[in-house]
Amino acid sequence: MPWTLWLVTLLACVLAPLSVLALGRALPRLSVPGLLGEGLTMALLVLLLTQDAPLYALLLVFVAGAVGTGAALYRHLNT
């Protein structure tokens, strides 16, 4: 896998949980930075898919998003 795809994967892995946490922090309102982060994460996933990135790169991004979702739900349910 070329180094540029690694950078895109790393950026998506960082953005996925942070944008979910930004969305979860602002509940029940909407968070503009969270929405922008989610949109950018989806764009990076589409880029990875169109560049034939290996499956483990996509799974890393989905796992990072799941961790962010779990942390946001934990924070929201325990307040």
What this model shows, in words?
It is a single chain. By secondary structure, the chain is mainly α. Helices cover 82% and strands 0% of the residues. The longest helix has 23 residues. It is elongated, with a radius of gyration of 13 Å.
Topology:
Layout: H1 3-25, H2 32-50, H3 55-77
Helix pairs in contact: 1-2, 1-3
Rg estimate, integer Å: 13 Å
Outline: elongated
Q: List segments where confidence is low: pLDDT < 50 over at least 5 consecutive residues.
A: none
Number of helices: 3
The number of distinct β-strands equals: 0
List keywords for this structure.
mainly alpha; 0% strand
In short:
The chain is 82% helix and 0% strand. It has 79 residues and is mainly α.
